[in-house]
Structures
1.
Amino acid sequence: MHGLLKCIAGRFQVNSYSELDPGLNLVPPLSVTPSDVEKRVIPTVATSTVITPSSKPCILTPTDNNFHEIRALGDACAVFLDILSPPYHESMADVREGEDIRDCDYYMVGCTEERGSGEPPVTWLCVASESEIKAFRTRGEPYQGPKVGSTEKEGEEEGNLKKGT
């Protein structure tokens, strides 16, 4: 999945996590519980930044910054645009034949450990519990602007298709 995150108003703290290569064979520390390991534990490298409307967009790719946490800072209104492509599936009916299911999973920071040798610390992400997921709050709004990606030529072709049917 690819994404673009742009602050429109206010300020946000963005903590991003990039999964480390599974070939490193990192072993989760003892502070990560066995039940976490059974679900899924992901070793990552974390980055943190504060973004404002004058900041460049944050970019995520399937390998970089793909796990992210966005928190509004201060008491003022804060708005961001988050574009994900391809989007998550909202139900199994949205999954096309041969396509992998794109579901939104929720994680929490289990712990962070130093690796030494000038390597960045490893932040272990663990699958969030049901109570933590229920505490998650966000609100989306439907897009009400003009059609995105439309060109005159596409419009003409659509018109011709309508006339021919």
2.
Amino acid sequence: MCCGRWERKEESSCTEHLYRCGTPTALGEKDAEILLSLVDKHCFSKGKGAIEYTVEAGRPDSINREKLKLLQDFSVDRISINPQSFHQESLDIIGRKHSVEEVKEKSILWQESWALTTLTWT
């Protein structure tokens, strides 16, 4: 799933990290947990001095309560969702599988699940 490459130099310290490799939330919960565990162990974590940990959530249809909980468990404090448009006709034309209503529902789910984090629409 990951199209990027992790590099870590011993002398460098990373205080902010944005994990964007396609849509990480498209992974199932078990695979996402494995990925987040590897990132936490080998690359990046709040315990290693990170100030902000952002995950690109991509499509609204890739988000559920379980994935939000998992992201929280790994100290992700910001997610970025890209609905492409808030106009249903535009979503239909570009072939997006989610609806404007689903975007609103996911926003409410995020608010209920994760009140102390940042949600950005990209």
